[in-house]
Known about the structure:
Blueprint: H1 2-17, E1 30-32, E2 40-42, E3 52-60, H2 67-83, E4 89-95, H3 102-113, E5 118-122, H4 128-139, E6 142-147
Parallel strand pairs: 3-4, 3-6, 4-5
Antiparallel strand pairs: 1-2
Amino acid sequence: xxxxxxxxxxxLVVHFKSPKPRxxxxxxxxxxxxxxxxxxxxxxxxxxxxRVDLSIIVPAYxxxxxxxxxxxxxxxxxxxxxxxxSFSYELIIMDDGSKDRTSEVALEFARIHGICELRVxxxxxxxxxxxxxxxxxxxxxxxxxxxxxxxxxxxxxxIDA
Length: 161
């Protein structure tokens, strides 16, 4: 009785009082990838049926220098996971209005290493880290979702430890 009513009341307050994400610009509904047939692909949704085991979200703002180190770490992690069985993933780089070559560096890395699972979403304006993470999660199609910073502070080799 009382606990259920309090829980429902709390949930309603959070739902109606929480700030809603800023609506996406139309261009932010698409990602860039290295698949030449569909260079610009419509984003998936958190609410769709899962298509991959893991969605990796990387919010990035002016990270052209540090991003390749993280991408290499992710590449090694994925290779190790695939050796131990079937494993599918998507890697979503949320370029949060960068002024540098963050998007280009990510796509170039994907081309060099043949990473078709990497997609870049470019925000028209900077939303901040929270906004980039939120939009990345809302675009994820994985059974599990992980986000990590582009600075490489978290090593992927530590995930399964």
